Amino acid sequence: MKKQKTIALIAARKGSKGVKNKNLIKFGKKNIVNLAVLIGLKTSLIDKVLLSSDSDKILESVKKNKNLIKIKRPLKLAKDNSPMLPVIKHAIFYFEKKFDEKVSSIVILDPTSIFRLKKDIDKAIKIFKKKRLDLLVSTHEAEHNPYFSIVERYGKFYSLSKGLNLNIGSRQTAKKVYNINTVVWIYSRKAIMKEGQRIPKKTSIMNIPLDRTLEINTKKDLIEIKKILKK
User: Fold this and answer.
1) pLDDT tens per residue across span 97-145
2) 71 and 167: one domain?
3) Sign (positive/negative) of CA torsion 219, 224, 227, 228?
4) What's the pTM value of the predicted model, to 2 decimals?
5) One domain for residues 44 and 100
């Protein structure tokens, strides 16, 4: 029986709302897609890196490599409201058909997370395999807490989002919650193909230091990241 493969996916479409042409932004001589591809290629625990894009310019901006597969993504999977799971499924099918090999897990490396380190990916893959998860997602401790400092509307009035009857009196005693970030996500093939849930049942987290979790989603984010890099 053939060894099942761990692949990485960098999904980078040409359309972006918060920051125009976000995936072609350069830091030094390389754009953010290149940075994501290169760190995936450096990770020995990843067998192949897949770059999926609807943009020829993005695909051509990354140099050829024997362990890199470029996929021209169908336009129906590259709209503003296109969910990620069908994009992942498309990449898995493409790989399995092309190489006649089975995928066991797929590592998602979002280009917007430029401060991730190789050790973050390696550690995540090891945890994912050891715990036999369907999803491992990188996180950091949340600044605001739905048990204490986040409210939502219920009818005419507003109440805490969670724990309405717990009467928690301080942030320190509230249940810990975490923000999901895009440093690294790892899905099992089963979770993508059978469960079809963004957050499947067998999910665990890996906390990442806050300074490595900054993402480029808005112009404000970009300005902040440029300031940090100048220092």
Assistant:
1) 999 999 999 999 999 999 999 999 999 999 999 999 999 999 999 999 9
2) no
3) negative
4) 0.93
5) yes
Asked if residue 221 has pLDDT above 60, the reply is yes
**Residue 10, pLDDT score:** 98
Judge if 46 and 71 occupy the same domain.
yes
Q: Are 9 and 53 in contact (CB under 8 A)?
A: no
Rg (alpha carbons) of the chain, rounded to whole number: 19
Number of domains in the chain: 2
89 with 163, same domain: the answer is: no
* Residues constituting the chain: 231
**For residues 55-59, average pLDDT:** 96
SS (H, E, C) the chain: CCCCEEEEEEECCCCCCCCCCHHHCEECCEEHHHHHHHHHHHCCCCCEEEEEECCHHHHHCCCCCCCEEEEECCHHHCCCCCCHHHHHHHHHHHHHHHHCCCEEEEEECCCCCCCCCHHHHHHHHHHHHHHCCCEEEEEEECCCCCCCCCEEEECCEEEECCCCCCCCCCHHHCCCCEEEEEEEEEEEHHHHHHHCCCCCCCEEEEECCHHHCCCCCCHHHHHHHHHHHHC
pLDDT tens, 153-199? 999 999 999 988 888 888 888 999 999 999 999 999 999 999 889 99
Residue 217 phi/psi, 5° resolution? -120, -25
